[in-house]
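ASSEMBLY PREDICTION REQUEST
Request ID: AP-0331
Submitted by: J.K., bench scientist
Number of chains: two
Total residues: 244
Priority: normal
Notes: Please return the full assembly, not individual chains.
Input sequences:
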Amino acid sequence: MPKQSKKNATDQFMDLLQGVASETGHDLSESADKIRTTVAEQMAKLSLVVGEPGYDRAVKAARDNVALAAGLAAVEDADAADGRIIGVIQGALFFGAKTLA
Amino acid sequence: MNRLCASLALVCVLLASCIGTRARNDALMPAVRMAWPEVRVDFDRGVADGINDGDLTEMAAIGLRSEADRLNNAITSGDRIALINVLYDTEIRPWAGRGITAALDAGEIGPNGALLLQERLGNFSAAILVLQERATSLLPTTR
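STATUS: Completed
Returned structure:
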């Protein structure tokens, strides 16, 4: 029986994000904590929206909240401004939202 | 549908990434550009609610929509100087907030979803403020 991963969705997401950052030659050390916290918060909030009307709109709002928070952090950390980093954030959040739904 | 939207969003930002790491002044624009269409939906909902409740005349609504169009043009074109003159805080943000409340009252969204939309409006507004401040710093000083 395969060993179950102990990592939660946020940790897996951050591993992915750090991997992309590393591959593209970026250092997210200044923004990583902020992004990690925002993703975890938005995922938790999205879990409360399941079953409510307008779920799709809430998913987009959560996506935008992470991207805007990352963008605001990126004002202080130019590496986080790269579009691929924001792309990973969006993709991961949509994947998480789909899992929740 | 979610997968389609995610794919489209991903393609958009991957295209944007072809430019490479942007200068710090450009860091927010991709996220603002992505969030704006949904904020516009909230704004339009709020203006419609204002007209329905008699708080807005059609003429006043035309002025508000015109301001939103100016913001739209500045965001889509990336014209930061044009962004400076948009009356965001007085003409757009309040009506976007009202739109979220109206959608909640009408049962179009739930209470937890409304909180996420309000949070986005707050983040979006903070981002617009940063962009406007930084654009102002780009203006030549007169001596």
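REVIEWER COMMENTS: Residues 111-138 of chain B form the longest helix (28 residues).
SIGN-OFF: pending second reviewer
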